[in-house]
């Protein structure tokens, strides 16, 4: 059973990845049997105008115990929209990620930022997430 009265928050700053990357940002402690990611946001550190040549997408994956897994936890946001123009990003704005499935990770598994860049983008960002821990009943 998860303890929803004890929500924890983590913010991780990611420097400019410069290219497509899978970036392990947090590992579930071995003393905890399971966590549930409740909510997550991306916060860009620099504004990026909408466009067709330079843009990025960000999502979250369950990296497994080696940090290289690819099970999607939150689908990527950003990227190209209808008509081929990617939406812009505004500095210090919270962009929510939608957590899919049950949002759980088990002891030793990594939460990984799935970063996909097109063109030349020099944009550090932060990922903020909230979670609870417990055991399944």
Overall description:
The chain is 0% helix and 48% strand. It is mainly beta. The strands form 2 sheets. Strands 1, 3, 6, 7 and 9 form a 5-stranded antiparallel β-sheet that branches. 27% of the residues are buried.
Write the layout of secondary structure elements.
Elements: E1 8-14, E2 21-27, E3 34-44, E4 55-62, E5 71-78, E6 95-97, E7 104-106, E8 110-118, E9 125-134
Antiparallel strand pairs: 1-9, 2-8, 3-6, 3-7, 3-9, 4-5, 4-8
How is this structure best summarized?
This protein is mainly beta and 137 residues long. 0% of the residues lie in helices and 48% in strands.
Question: What brief labels describe this structure?
Answer:
137 residues; five-stranded antiparallel β-sheet; four-stranded antiparallel β-sheet; 9 strands; 48% strand
Q: Distance between termini?
A: 5 Å
Kindly state the mean pLDDT as a whole number? 92
Please provide the count of β strands: 9
The share of residues in helices is under 10%
How many alpha or pi helices? 0
The amount of beta strand, in percent, is over 45%
Largest beta sheet, briefly?
5 strands, antiparallel
Report the radius of gyration as a whole number of Å.
15 Å
Structural class: mainly beta
Uncertain segments of ≥5 residues (pLDDT<50)? none
Q: SSE order in H/E notation?
A: EEEEEEEEE
Gross morphology is elongated
């Amino acid at each position: 059973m998860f303890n929803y009265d004890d929500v924890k928050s983590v913010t991780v700053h990611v420097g400019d990845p410069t290219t497509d990357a899978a970036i392990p940002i947090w590992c579930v402690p071995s003393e905890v049997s399971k966590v549930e990611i409740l909510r997550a946001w991306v916060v860009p550190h620099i504004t990026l105008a909408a466009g067709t040549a330079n843009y990025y997408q960000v999502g979250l994956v369950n990296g497994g115990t080696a940090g290289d897994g690819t099970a999607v936890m939150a689908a990527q946001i950003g990227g190209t929209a209808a008509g081929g123009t990617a939406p812009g990003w505004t500095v210090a704005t919270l962009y929510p990620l939608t957590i899919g499935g049950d949002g759980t990770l088990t002891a030793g598994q990594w939460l990984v930022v799935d970063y996909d860049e097109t063109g030349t983008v020099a944009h550090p960002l932060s990922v903020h997430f909230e979670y609870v821990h417990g055991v399944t009943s």
